[in-house]
């Protein structure tokens, strides 16, 4: 699928990779702090914003998207990544270290020994059932309550943001990413 991205500024490339239930513009409050002397690149991962999607999800394809984007930029890049974006970036970094200059990863959904016990597969199934029976907005709220354990106050604040419809539009990607993180085994 086509992967949409936005560039601004000049200098060393700095790529921002968003997590689950987000899109590229989630980074705007942060990325604007780095525009001096940096080439800022924010992209919509598969199934979000302006990027296309495939029916079958594959973590390796998302890794390929990031590596292809860095190669298109034409120089090793600095990358800042959050949550599922950090999982993608870590995989890309391990498989293609030469395309990276530096990486900052936070809140990666990783379990280094055995099963990823902080993602309950039954809750992932319930999430998808909520999406199919009650819609994207209900699934997004369910996700926020059950996985990052957001408070009702925080959920209400997110719902008031201009980006809420975009967050809800990404609801079909939630269960697949949680499943990918649950099934991921660090090598």
How would you characterize the overall build of this protein?
There is one protein chain. The protein has 187 residues and is α/β, with parallel strands linked by helices. The chain has helices at residues 28-31, 59-73, 84-95, 121-134, 136-146, 152-159, 164-169, 174-183, and strands at residues 5-8, 12-17, 38-43, 77-82, 100-106. The model has no long low-confidence stretch (mean pLDDT 89). Strand 4 (77-82), helix 3 and strand 5 (100-106) form a beta-alpha-beta unit. The protein is 43% helix and 16% strand. Helix 4 packs antiparallel against helix 5 (136-146). The protein is globular and about 45 Å long. It is built from eight helices and five strands. A five-stranded mixed sheet has the order 1-3-2-4-5, with helices on one face.
Topology record:
Elements: E1 5-8, E2 12-17, H1 28-31, E3 38-43, H2 59-73, E4 77-82, H3 84-95, E5 100-106, H4 121-134, H5 136-146, H6 152-159, H7 164-169, H8 174-183
Parallel strand pairs: 2-3, 2-4, 4-5
Antiparallel strand pairs: 1-3
Helix pairs in contact: 2-3, 4-5, 4-8
């Amino acid at each position: 699928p086509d992967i949409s991205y936005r560039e601004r500024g000049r200098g060393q490339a700095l790529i921002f990779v968003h997590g689950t239930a987000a899109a590229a513009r989630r980074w705007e409050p942060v990325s604007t702090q780095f525009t001096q002397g940096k080439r800022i690149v924010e992209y919509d991962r598969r199934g979000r914003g302006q990027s296309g999607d495939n029916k079958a999800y594959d973590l390796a394809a998302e890794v390929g998207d990031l590596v292809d984007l860095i190669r298109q930029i034409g120089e090793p890049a600095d990358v800042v990544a959050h949550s599922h974006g950090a999982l993608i970036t870590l995989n890309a970094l391990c498989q293609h270290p030469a395309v990276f200059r530096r990486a900052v990863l936070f809140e990666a959904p990783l379990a280094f020994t055995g099963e990823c016990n902080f993602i309950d597969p039954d809750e992932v199934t319930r999430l998808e059932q909520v999406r199919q029976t009650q819609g994207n907005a209900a699934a997004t709220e369910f996700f926020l309550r059950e996985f990052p354990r957001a408070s009702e106050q925080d959920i209400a604040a997110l719902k008031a943001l201009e980006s809420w419809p975009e967050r809800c539009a990404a609801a079909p990607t939630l269960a697949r990413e949680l499943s990918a993180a649950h099934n991921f085994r660090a090598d």
